[in-house]
Amino acid sequence: MNNLCTDVGYLSLNKKDELLCGDHVEVVHSSWGEDVQGFTIAVLADGLGSGVKASILSTLTAKIIATMMANSLTVEDCVVTIAATLPVCKIREMAYSTFTIIRITENLDAEIIQYDNPQVILLRHGKNFPYTTITETIGKKKIYKTRLKVREDDTFIAISDGVIHAGIGKSLNFGWLREDIISFIEEAYEQKYTAKTLSSILLNKCYSLYGGEPGDDTTICTVKIRRRQPINLLIGPPEKPSEVQKMMALFFAKEGKHIVCGGTTSSLAAQFLGKPLLTGIPRYIDPDIPPVASIEGVDVVTEGVITINRVLDYARDYNKDNENYAHWNYGKDGASLIARLLFEEATDINFYVGKAVNPAHQNPDLPIGFNIKMRLVEELASCLKAMGKQIKVSYF
Fold first, then answer.
1. What does DSSP assign to residue 389?
2. Between β-strands 257-261 and 300-302, what pairing exists: parallel, antiparallel or unpaired?
């Protein structure tokens, strides 16, 4: 097992006045094992036309391909199954759905399989990297295949034709040409950006070119090879005071950055490290979020439940449209600092959760129940898993 991981992030725009998107992305991850190769498969399918029919058929296409390839079937098997399952437009004599497949095996090898979608863009060191394709005809369909070794920070960008149609008849005469898309993403690229962030940047540009009224379903799916980055988050003191030393020792022994949440928890962490807990003059950067503190040896020190609740709000939004990206990406409050670490930097996140009851939370006038901390952590962990993070939660 190497120290790399595969980060996948995708977003879509619906065609103007359509409730459903005619594109669909399906992602399948396989865990590592002694006799099992770890892999990630991302499939972007683009249904012909728009609306309900396109949405159903693109969804079927993506799910069929992802499921079959995850079970070691060949692309030939996938194409034959799709041809037998989905209809062909009698007027245009075209399949109802095109597709792009990106399969990363053991974070070392990439396979790109493309049928009638715009060609995948590959960035290496932030610059366009031309790659060789082999053409095969399968079931009267011209399929383009590519195999290559991946490197750290290689970024694969799969797009539907809504991207290249952006701006037609409005800001651009002939749509957004491939070379212009590449120039834009090269200029916007930063190594720290996650796959989801890069997809957001590109999709926002498409929305702008469409003048806020997309003329076609538009989807970007980014797959990025990243070095693993562990982040550790401690919240709440342990249920038994005798467990404090054990909890702190395990937490601070972990590789990676460390986040401590909660007033009592921060005091215990400071005592364990033998360093002062510095609060200074409170700065309410966000009036709804308590100010941060600092401890030498800890990367971020914040209040507990209120701050984590805001992080959870950001995480829910991140997994949808990522509309709050600008707020937490540039904010200096505790919730924004944690969100950046968990969403942007982290690939592996370790939660250390103390189960001690906070007397302040027993006040009947406060809208905080006994299990609020547990619920927040569990839901946040679930959201982070949906982002593709590796999560481990330890209770004390």
1. -
2. parallel
- Residues 298, 300, 302, 304: what is their CA dihedral angle, to the nearest 10 degrees? -80
Residue 330: HSE in the Cβ half-sphere, 13 Å Cα cutoff: 4
For 136, list phi and psi in degrees, rounded to 5. -130, 150
DSSP code of 201? H
The whole-angstrom separation of Cα 113 and Cα 46 is 14
**For residues 5-15, average pLDDT:** 94
Closest CA to 126 of 188, 78, 176, 204: 188
Q: Where are the domains of the chain?
A: 4-227, 230-395
Q: How far apart are CA 95 and CA 72, in angstroms?
A: 24
Rounded to the nearest angstrom, the gap between the alpha carbon of residue 278 and the centroid of all alpha carbons in its chain is 34
Q: Are 162 and 216 in contact (CB under 8 A)?
A: yes
Length of the chain, in residues: 396
3.90.1300.10, 3.80.10.10, 3.60.40.10, 3.30.565.10: CATH of 4-227: 3.60.40.10
pTM, to two decimals: 0.88
Report the DSSP beta bridge partners of residue 145.
113, 134
As a whole number of angstroms, the distance between CA 384 and CA 159 comes to 24
Helices (H), 210-321: 244-253, 263-273, 305-318
Q: How far apart are CA 329 and CA 346, in angstroms?
A: 14
Distance from C-alpha of 334 to C-alpha of 336, rounded to nearest angstrom: 5
pLDDT digits (tens, 9 = 90+) for 151-163: 999 999 999 999 9
3-class DSSP state for residue 345?
helix
